[in-house]
Amino acid sequence: MDHLDKLEAQSVYILREAYREFKSLCMLWSIGKDSTVMLWLARKAFFGHVPIPLVHIDTHYKIPEMITYRDRIALEWNLNMIYGENREALESKLTFPDGNTDRITCCKYLKSEALKHTLSGEWPRYRMDHELKRYVPDEGKEPYTGVIVGVRADEEGSRSKERYFSPRDKDNVWDVGDQPPEFWNQFKTDFAPGTHVRIHPLLDWTELNIWEYIEREKIPVVSLYFNQGKGTRYRSLGCYPCTNPVDSASQTVPEIIDELKSGRLSNIAERSGRAQDSEDGGLETLRRDGYM
Amino acid sequence: MMNGRAQMNIVIVGHVDHGKSTVIGRLLADTGTLPKGKLESVKENCRKNSKPFEYAFLLDALKDEQSQGITIDMARCFFKTAARDYIIIDAPGHIEFLKNMITGASRAESALLVIDVDEGIKENSKRHGQMVSMLGVKQVTVLVNKMDLVDFSEEVFEKLKADYSEFLAQIKVKPVSFIPVSAREGDNIATLSERMPWYRGATVLQQLDGFTSDKQLQDKPFRFPVQDIYKFTRQNDDRRIVAGTVAAGSVSVGDEVLFLPSGKQSAIKTVESFNTTPKQSALTGDALGFTLTTQIYIRPGELMVKPSEPLPEVGTRFRVNIFWVGRAPMIMQKEYKLKIGSARASVKLAEICNTLDASDLSYSKNKHQLDCRDVGECILETSRPIAFDPAAASEATGRFVIVDNYEIAGGGIVIENLSADETLLQRHIRERENNWEKGLIKAEEREHANHHRAKFIVFTGVPGTGKRSIAKALEQGLFGNRLNAYYLGVASIDRGLDADLGYNADNAGERLRRIGELARILTDAGLIFITTIDDADDYDIETLKQLNEPSDILVVNLGENGFSRYHPDLQIPAISSLADAVQAVVELLKTKEIIIEYQI
Fold first, then answer.
1. Residue B72: pLDDT over 60
2. Once rounded to an integer, what is the mean pLDDT over residues B272-296?
3. CA diameter of chain A
């Protein structure tokens, strides 16, 4: 087995473990490269099927290509695709692009809050109807007790402290200092009523691994990751007001792999194009509060 | 291949302040893994603040940067040598971080144990050695650090080496090597030190590159813990796939396979995987699936093996080593959940043979519980047989964790299978019967007055077969015939008799016991006691049968038969009408002379 085989096998094992143990399970799909690889790994784990609903939090400020891609893949791969949103904040224009909040607060409203209430089932969910080929209100109001998330340990400091199976308490709070032990391949799959567990199948993957795997498996990803001739590409995807491309000539997956291996980007953070990270407290503050 | 570089996880352990961070900082610096200019700027900073430069400061500096979003990771740090890539799993030395250390060390293939030569062997030097051993990290190298503080003395080094080797021998750890180093000064880290001409062994980097990553599991007997059974019928997929990860050995299409503990047999029809070329075989480490040549009913948690190879053990009672990290102690008589391979079972601590206080290595024979951080040799007993290997024979199927109140509270390895002279259940029933206080009415007198005999009727089968409707209709029919039948819904007990158990899955065995105890009381009262159990297996029925004695049990299975050896008294197809199903049970009750007459 080479290193990609090992990473794949471990992620598949984690996904199957989650599917076996959690009655009410969902997978967060941000449309980015990492969670798209995770979605692919689910097809590996379940032999071409994805028996887990995919949840996307739509801030309605996503780069439009992302949404087109999401819906195309959802139909092609027969996904149980669900999205949620913070309608109240959007309607009352409590956002950064509207000039009414700072970036961090905007993330908190449009992402963390929307996510929290979509997962709990308190706010409306919209489900892709495969016959109508459009979204309809979802009947399901059940809270998800297992949430599969595509974070990687090498991405950013706070994520390196995560476990594969990481409990969150009733208020979504993550106690970084007192996490359960993971012995070998036995994870925390039991949880008290009212709490939920986040599951991280990609924890051991690096940015390079992700691209190597995309190349090996020929996984379709959003075109935004590639230089379309202007000498820039997105390295990390988010909302357009807060996400900037990086300078890069890479037009194909092998070129991205070469670029990462060359070390040209080695002193630049992967999320450097994500403006919210550089604000006070940054991602760890957001994550403690339930951000992915 | 795009990137064929090998990877190895290593863990660095040792007592607080014995120099783990310095070793890590050194490894990063000497392998050129640090960001450009980092080393110089930290040195410059130290000079400005007039404090001596320490490699540990490098880690602190990197941590600061990390919080600004630069992708250098501290809980795991990466460096590479010419031979391969390394991931250092940072295992904090403080006792409060024990759970982190376990998590890190159980993923490592090799360990560096750091000891301060000046301070000598400390509590965590021993405790971590013990844990690394239990967690199955086979390749351990001891770094005898801070040799500069003892003038690079060979004598001091040899003394420590002898002392610590003696300790390690007691816990059956055979270190690959001892290396005298000064991490701060860089002696023997990347290059051999001229200040220790008496040492001509490997440097730390040479030693790391010398570790092997191949665990030689491929040639062992085939072990495949069944993680799940998939059938995605709704997606127009008729494959019934047995899914999991090969823990050891290999298997090929056409091979005979045996499932334990159920004992069912079949053969491999296909190897299933997604987006790969078709496979004929599965090797150690592969996470895939199989279809079988015959339709057999198996459950997740079974161990699939090849009958032609050495078989695993199957048992309910076994000797283990447990490392306990729970907030609450592990106590006798309490029910816990055991997870071993893909199997889960209720388990009780039957006996504590001895406990080891890792800090002073003293054994205690008199403990009645395992406290946090105790390592104990114990006897565990599960409520039903499980399949496993002694850890010495097969690691992956000989390791387990124990869940207490939703949390993993302990981990351990199986030493050996023990034959059960008397199981905990048998002892419980013997003691219960010895103390049973009889009334003045005999069973025959009740039968005579009731016009029927007492019976415990259990409806089994997979969920959704209409067991409850039939059970209730039977109760109604019997009652209409003036017979004393009573139906009890399992849900009624959840919030009542079992309210103290919560929704905790650890208590499956206790829930079952209570149903069995109820049956004992109600059949003693002369009733026909009816209940339903989802997806019961042989051992559930055996447990109920024993608990219900001296009265007898009658099992009616609906739909697919999930029992491996047990034959239910009556098998009813899932498609039967309510009336037909009730009629079939009534006929059987008449045949068995439980009831004499019955009118519809």
1. no
2. 94
3. 54
Contact call for residues B243 and A16 (beta carbons, < 8 A): yes
CA-based nearest distance B396→chain A, Å: 9
B285–A5 CB contact, under 8 Å: yes
Highest mean pLDDT: which range of A262-266, B303-307, B384-388, B537-541: B303-307
- Partner B contacted by A6 (CB < 8 A): yes
Q: Which residues contact B350 (CB under 8 A, 6 or more apart)?
A: B317, B332, B378, B379, B380, B381, B424
Instruction: State whether residue A263 sits within 8 Å of chain B by CB.
Output: no
- Given CB atoms, is A279 within the 8 Å cutoff of chain B? no
Residue A278 belongs to a domain:
no
Contacts A–B by Cβ distance under 8 A? 168
Closest Cα partner for A41 from A162, A210, A160?
A: A210
Chain B environment of A191 (Cβ under 8 Å)? 406
On whether residue A12 sits in a domain, the answer given is yes
**ipTM attached to this prediction:** 0.92
Q: Which of A9, A193, A278 sits opposite B285 (nearest CB)?
A: A9
Residue of B nearest to A19 (CA): B228
Total count of domains within chain A: 1
Q: In whole angstroms, give the CA distance from residue B274 to residue A49.
A: 9
Average pLDDT over residues B2-11: 71
Please report the pLDDT score of residue B68 as a whole number.
43
Rounded to a whole number of angstroms, the distance from the CA of A156 to the nearest CA of chain B is 5
Residue B148: what pLDDT?
94
What pLDDT, on the 0 to 100 scale, is given for residue B67?
Answer: 44
> Rg for chain A (alpha carbons), in Å?
18
Under 8 Å between Cβ of A52 and A42? yes
Q: Single out the residue of B132, B42, B15, B29 nearest to residue B77, CA to CA.
A: B29
**Between chains, do B339 and A212 touch, taking CB under 8 Å as contact?**
no
> Among the ranges A49-63, A276-290, B64-78, which has the highest mean pLDDT value?
A49-63
CA B118 – CA B15 distance, rounded (Å) = 13
Averaged pLDDT for residues B250-271: 95
Domain that holds residue A192: 3-205
User: Helix B55-67 and helix B20-30: axis angle, to 10°?
Assistant: 80
Average of per-residue pLDDT across A158-167:
76
Cα–Cα distance, B96 to A178 (Å, whole number): 9
Domains and CATH numbers, chain B: 7-210 (3.40.50.300), 223-305 (2.40.30.10), 314-419 (2.40.30.10), 442-591 (3.40.50.300)
Asked whether residue A136 is domain-assigned, the answer is yes
Check residue B62 and give its pLDDT.
Answer: 65
Interatomic CA distance for residues B182 and B144, integer angstroms:
8
Region B242-248 average pLDDT: 96
**pLDDT tens digits for range B385-408:** 899 999 888 888 999 999 998 889
Q: From CA A269, how far away is CA B215, in angstroms rounded?
A: 36
CB contact under 8 A, B67 and A157: yes
Find out whether B347 and B401 touch, Cβ atoms under 8 Å. Answer: no
Is A24 a member of any domain? Answer: yes
Distance, in Å, from the CA atom of A107 to the CA atom of A171, rounded to the nearest integer, reads 18
Q: How far is B37 from chain A (nearest CA, A)?
A: 11
Q: How far is A12 from chain B (nearest CA, A)?
A: 7
pLDDT of B529-551, one tens digit each? 999 998 888 889 999 999 999 99
CATH code assigned at A188? 3.40.50.620
Question: pLDDT band for position A260 (50/70/90)?
Answer: confident
Interface check A68 vs B, CB under 8 A: no
- Exposure letters B67-93 (e unless 16+ CB within 10 A, then b): eebbbbbbbbbbbebeeeebbbbbbeb
The token pair at A163 is 């476990």
Name the residue facing B505 among A43, A190, A215 (closest C-beta). A190
Residue B6 has pLDDT above 80, yes or no: no
